[in-house]
Every structure is written in structure tokens, then in C-alpha cells.
Amino acid sequence: MTARNRELLGLFPVAALITAGFTAVYMARSSDLGSVSLTYGGIFLALCLTVHMFVRAKLPDADPYLFPLVALLSAFGLVLIYRIDDTLARQQAAWFVVGIVLFVATIYLLRDIRALQRYRYVIAAIGIGLLMLPRLPGIGAQVNGAYLGVKAGPITFQPTEFAKLCIIVFLASYLVERGEMLVLGARRVLGVTIPPLKHFGPLLVVWGASMFMLVFIRDLGSSLMFFGAFLALIYVATGRLSFVVAGLVMFVVGSWFFAHTVHHVQERIDIWLDPWNDPQGSGFQIVQSLFAQADGGLFGKGLGQALLNLPGGAQIPPAPDTDLIYAVITNELGLFGAAGVVLAYMLFAERGFRVAVMSDDGFLKLLATGLTAVFALQAFVIVGGVTRVIPLTGVTLPFVSYGGSSIVANFVLLALLLMVSQEARAPRAAPHSPVVTR
Amino acid sequence: MNARITHLFGIVVVLFAALVGFTSYWSVFHAGALEANRANKRPLLEQQRVRRGLILARDGTVLARNKSTGSGANKFYSRTYPDGSLFPHTVGYNYVSRGNSALERKYNDDLTGKANEIQTAFDELRGKKREGNDLTTALDPTAQRVALSGLAGRAGSVVAIEPQTGLVRVMASVPGFDLNAVPDNFARLVRAPDAPLLDRAAQSGYPPGSTFKVVTAAAALDSGKFTPNSVLNGKSPQTIGGVPLSNFSNEQFGDITLTDALTHSVNTVWAQVGEKLGKSLMYKYMNRFGFDRKPGIDLPPDELRSSGVYSNGKLLGPSDAIDIGRVAIGQERLQVTPLQMAMVASAIANGGHLMRPHLVEKVTDPDGRTVRRIKASEDSKVMSEATARSLGDMMSKVVQEGTGTAAALQGINVAGKTGTAEKGNANQAWFIAFAPVGAPRVAVAVTIEQTTGQGGTVAAPIAKQVMETLLRGK
Questions:
Q1: Which range has the top average pLDDT, A173-177, B51-55, B345-349?
Q2: Fewer CB within 10 Å: C terminus or N terminus of chain B?
Q3: What are the C-alpha distances in Å from A293 to residues A191, A382, B23, B114?
């Protein structure tokens, strides 16, 4: 079977899921929803088929499972957001279309993915610029004490979602060239490998940028995600665990320092350590998240069945469509449903790393590794926050949470991964290969 | 490099495993503790999504029903009380902001359909919505209105019981309040000096005055130490418990029978009876009548009060220093609830069998099927049938020719006993009664606080009207 037919086959369970999901929500709320809502599923599937046909034409040999996994997660997200608020679901569907347009545009315009290497400093500059946007007066928007959003007219967008792509592209292209030198030029002092400052400098810049984010945009989650991806790339590029350990130590020390000096970060950590100190105030979000999960149990309350909207118009848990969507998943679909979602992310990571393994170009290998790592880390940071593994911060659950920037940026991420995959899996032009017949 | 990528995937697997591990902890292993957490308002909010059962009077009048807001998954129910001032203390309220009380509280599991967990789980599997069960009480709205208008705004209480079953027909407490006003006016109701939230029928301890003489009489006759014709001297004053005791208005009586002493409510005679019976015998009968413990009525125990002799908020027993002669005539530190006195009348009416008082007759599911019927059960055998008959005859004399003539009903033989306990400058007026003598269908207790009238003049007429309504009503 060809890769594309496998992809098509992979879309069947997605079709089943979205149909069942919408039907379940529809049935749970039949009294106040028109049957029009059921056409959402149909439109979504038509969009998926469009993407499939495009990939079939442009990237025929690319990994066949990545897109069905994304479609699965998106379907999941769409059904859940529809269940939470059908107006938001309509907007999310619109963002899904925009994401697909950008996906197509990326593949179409970026004919040779290796070309990215040439613009690495420009791309890095764009990335840093994006990170600073939220603090610019006039357009920066502060949400829950963190500077995550940028307001441009009616649209709020989250530049960190796009910045993460820029930073990964930069790191991959930088490390493929200098990674070896970090090791070769290193001196060993008292058993510790110290890389030459000349080559290590740019990496210190990235570490600095992470710390800077922590302080400047006050976003613990994003800096964790960035720095994690950075360490993953360092490790894959150099093979030196000592660099990773040193990096982790630096991050922890840096975080500890800022936790004691920046109030917002300190508060986040205090809430994480003891949410019961103020369950109605600062601990409200995480405490409600845990209550919602406890309410779900093994099998959940069923789609559309759990308590979410309160008589006064408030919702528990708060921010059910974005930060705490995983708590809603556990609430309505239980431990099994939630584990299924985590499994989908793990399978995506597995396919992403496989793309990296199969690629024989150093840059593309690191690029695929970085993109996959940052994607997996993003899922980990938000799910970990919701389940109190780490402090809760405002990062979206890729393809599931409501949010245009997240959907669009992650579709670009998917486009890049598929392009790397096409490069890796495309049959080499082999004019002299003999035709074996028996 | 590929090996390192594999290592990286290994780390991702470990991280994701931690996520599943933590999710399992919160959603399954630690879920019970989280659900019981005080900060968790979900169970309370969840109850609002259940159509709560109705509370009905015996005649089908709806005493508590629901109004809903929103629709579908956002549909929430809240309580509304069609006549919220009729039985506020007995029906009780149920609001998320204020919690619940009385029947709403006692039968919360039935009303929210939670009584049977297995059935609930089964219904949920079948996609059937959880619904509350309805309560049918024996309460009688017409008689309750008669009781309330009889009290006419004077603080007090009326309780009427069906003697054979213990079913409560009337349970009035004045001042009252409107159940529908609870969410907005709770603070004001709590602070109000006349304590409208207090259920005087079951929570107020009053000196019973001479109504308590029927308890003494039951002990006297049933123990065999006296007969209705036993003769004692009724001069006034006489030394009781070392202190002179007078009759009402210092009225003088010569040697008179116990029947006449009850008819005319002669203090000095009944105090002598009490002293002769002694504390332990008196207490034996008091206990049989239900004193010294909370009544077994289907209301939350902390909304009930025990009747008995109190000192500093504590119940005294037969081994304590008590002036039993004065207890025998309803003085000393005796504090009784109107419900307890209705139980006394009910036990005499029912041939000496005290039935456990209760409000709810049956619980029905939303389709009208009876889930369970609350059967009449005997609390205690207070006295022999013969004693009860003799005592009933003595009490009917009270209504025919004694202090309780105001309770006499045309063509119906009523047995009763008046009581007037002096509290400072005002009286606590009482009347307890049952009718018809021979085949009683109603027993009643009426009391009015802080009145200038006496039991026979202010309480007896209310008892008469309530009994008449209940007897004619069927």
C-alpha cells in the first residue's frame, strides 16, 4: 500500500470519531441545538480530504500517519470546543481553514526546505522580535499576569506560537554547522567539558532568551518549552549529556532566581506547591481542574454530560476551552479518553522522531527533531500543568485547545515535518539501478 | 545521531507516562478525597441539575416544586414554594446559597433521586436522566390555615396528629416566614428578635402548666396507686417540696376525686399525687410518653428538642434534686414542646399506644409508582387500654363542665386539658385534646406565648376549630 493510501485509511477513524463526537454532544443538548450542527462533521472531513489530496500531489512519499494524527486531535478539539461553546467552535473551524491555507502555502512557497538554513539569522531575529511584541506598548496584552498576546484590532494572536518555529529552525541550522566544534574545541577542566566560548556564545544567547522570556513576558511554560527543545537539540547534535545537565542546572538556577525576584513566577510556583492554601482565589484554576478530573473517573461523564456551565454564566473549570481543556477531556471522557489523547501526542512524537531518523541530511534531521520535541513539550507543559506535574501556565494544547495562533502555527510545523519526511522517504533518482527479475 | 533521537523519544515516553500517571491519580485513585473536599462545590451544583421531587400535602396540594432556568445541559432547577408561608418550618427550604432544612433536608436523598445508587448507575447507562422522588405528606393545608388564623399572629404553635398512625396533620409555628424569601432575606430572618425561623412546634421548650397533669394522671392510674375516684384534699395553699403551693386564684376545694380535680385543674391535689408517686415512677411514665429524648419524627434531629426538666440547658433525671410535686402540675423547670404535648394527647387517644409521629406517608417516583410507604410504628406502650379509657373520660369532663368548655364540639365528644403557666407577668396558654372520645381521629396541642388569656380561653378555641376542620374534612 502506498503511503498516501495509508494516510487516507488513517482518516477513517477520524471520520468515525468526529461523527460520534458531534452526535454525542448533539444528543446531550438536543433541546437547544439545531441539526445544522451535525454538518460541522461533514465540513471537517471534506477539509481533511482536501489536505490529503494536496499532500498526495505535492508530498507523495511523506509520512502517512502524521496528518491523520493531527486530524484526530483537531477533531477531538473541535468536538470539545463545540460542547463548551458552539460560537467558539465556529471560530475554531474558521481557524482550522486558515491553518490549512498556511499549510498549503508553506509547502507551495517553500519549495526547498533546506533554503531555510540560509536565512537562519533573519529567522532568529524574527523569532526574538515576535517574543518581544507582547511587551510593546499599544499592542501588548497581559493575560493573568503573563504577556502572551498581541492585539491587532479584533484579533489577538500569540507570537510565542510562531516564535517557537523560528527558534527551532535557527537552532537546527546553527547546531548542524557548529555542533561538532562545540565538542572538538572543548577543553576538559576537572572532568567537565567546557565548550569554546566562541561557539558556545550563540547558545548562551538562547539560554538568555529563555530566561528573558521568563522575566520579560513572564511565561514560565513557554520558556520551559523553548529551553527543553534547545537542550534536546544540543543533546542530539553533540551527544554530550554533560551539556544537557549543565543546561538543566542553569535553567533551574535561573528559574529559582527569578522565582524569588519576579512576583508572577513566584506566585505560579507557590500555587503549584500548595493550591489548597487559597482554593477560591489564586488556587482556583488548578483546584477546579483537579475536581473536574476527579468527577470524570475511569470512563468520564460522557460528552456533553459533565457540569460545566453554572447558572450565573460562569464555567468550571475556568478557561475550559484553552488552558484547562485537558481537565474537561478527563471530566467527560474519563481517564481512558485522556490517556487516549496523550497517546495520540506520543504517536505523533514517535512519527516525528522517525522522520528525523530517516532523514540523511544533518539540518533536516535536527529540524525534525526540534519540531517534534517542541510539539511534544508543548503538550507536556500544558497537560503537566493541568495535572499538577509542573506549575500551570497558559500554553495551548496543540490542535485541541481553542486558539487561532496555535492551530495555524502548528499546521506550519506539520507542513515542515512532512516536507522533511518527503525528502527523507522519496525514492532516490537511481538511473543505473538494475531491474531485478526472477 | 539516530541513537540519540531514540533516547529523546524515550524521555518523551517517560514524560507522557508521568502525565497519564498523574491523571490516573486525580481521576481515580485520589478522586474520592477530591470529591469530599469542602472547596468542591460540584456535588451541590450537580444536585441543581436534578429535577427535585415535589413535596405534596395529602390532598395533593403542592407544597414545594421546581422552576428551571436554561435548557439542555445548562438546565438548572431551583425551588419555589407555591404557598411558602403555610408550612415553612416543616417543609423547609432548599437553596444552594443557604443549604436546606426540615423535610427538604431530611429527605434530600429521596428528593434528588439518590436513594438507590445501583439503580441510578443503571439508569445512567440507559441514558435515563436522574430524577427526584416525590414526597406525599399527611399535612392538611386547610386545617393548617385554620390553625394559623386561630393564632392570628400571636407567637405560638399548633400540632395535630392522627393517633392511630402518628401522622402529623397540622404543624404550625408563629411567627413564620415565606420560604421563597429565604435566599434574599436570610440574614434578616436570622437576626429578627421574634425568631421566625425557629420551629416552635418542635424546637421551643415551654412550661406545660396544667396540661402536664394528664401525664401525672396516667402514672397515677396505670400504676394502680390511684383510681379516678380516689379522694384527696384540695385546700390551698399546701406545702409542696417544702414551699407553699396555691391553687389558681387560691380557689379552695375540700375532699375531691381525681376526676373532679382534673376537671377543675386543682394544683394542690395533683401535686400531692406527684409527691406520692415519687420521682422514679413519674419519670417512668414521662419516658414512656417520649420525654427526655428527641421525638422519632422524620425531621432532622438537630431541628428537634427533647422535652423534660432542664437545668442550665441540661436534662435532669430522677436522681437529681427535683421538686416532683411541682413537676406533676407542669411547673418546676419543666420545658416541653408542642409536638411532645400532642404526642401525650395522641397516646391517650390511641388506647395507650404512642405511635411514632411522622410527616411523610409515602415516597413516589416521577411516574407515580410508590417507592416506599412509611408504615405506622409504635414508639411505646404508655399505659393499659383501661387506663387510657378512664383518663379519656376524665378529660372529656374537662371539656363538658370544666376549664376546657371552649373546645366543645356540637355532637362530638371531645377530651381535653387546659394549661396556663405563668411566666413573669404573662401566661403560656395551653390546650391539649383529642376527639371523638371512643374512636379518636385527631389529637391536638395548642400553645400561645406571652398572652394575658388562659389555656381555656385562648388556646381551647383554636384546638376546637382545628379538630372540627380535620374531623369534618374527611
A1: B345-349
A2: C
A3: 47, 15, 7, 22
ipTM: 0.91
Do A400 and A80 form a contact (C-beta atoms < 8 A)? yes
3-state SS, B231-254, equals EEECCCCEEECCEEECCHHHCCCC
Residue B35 binned pLDDT confidence (cut-offs 50, 70, 90): confident
Domain count, chain B: 1
Query: Is residue B204 domain-resident?
Result: yes
Report helix angle B279-289 to B267-277, nearest 10.
Answer: 100
Separation in Å, CA of A295 to nearest CA in chain B: 7
In whole angstroms, give the CA distance from residue A355 to residue B466: 89
CB contact under 8 A, A279 and B39: yes
The span from the CA of A194 to the CA of A187, in Å, is 5
Q: What domain range includes position B288?
A: 141-178+197-359+377-472
Contact: A280, B72; criterion CB under 8 Å: no
Strand partners, B314: B311
Chain B residue with the nearest C-alpha to that of A376: B12
Give me the residue from A232, A335, A383 closest to B24, CB to CB.
Answer: A335
Residue in chain B nearest A367 by alpha carbon: B5
pLDDT, tens digit, 9 for 90 and up, residues A277-317: 888 888 888 999 999 999 998 988 888 778 887 776 778 88
Query: Chain B closest CA to A280's CA: distance in Å?
Result: 8
CB B89 within 8 A of CB B201: yes
Alpha helices in A59-141 (DSSP H): 66-84, 86-109, 120-132
Measured between CA atoms, the residue of chain A closest to residue B44 is A307
Here the CATH number for the domain that contains residue B152 is 3.40.710.10
Could A387 and B26 be called an inter-chain contact, meaning their C-beta atoms sit closer than 8 Å? yes
Of A253 and A200, the structure prediction assigns the larger pLDDT to: A253
Average pLDDT over residues B167-183: 95
What is the reported pLDDT for B23?
95
The alpha-helical segments, DSSP class H, found in B95-212 are: 102-106, 108-111, 117-125, 141-151, 182-191, 200-203
A433: how many CB neighbours lie within 10 A of its CB? 9
| pLDDT tens digits along A408-422 | 999 999 999 999 999
Q: Which residue of B has its CA nearest to A330?
A: B27
List residues bridging with B334 in a β-sheet.
B309
Integer Cα distance of B130 and B279 in angstroms: 54
Contacts of A29 in chain B (CB under 8 A): 72-73
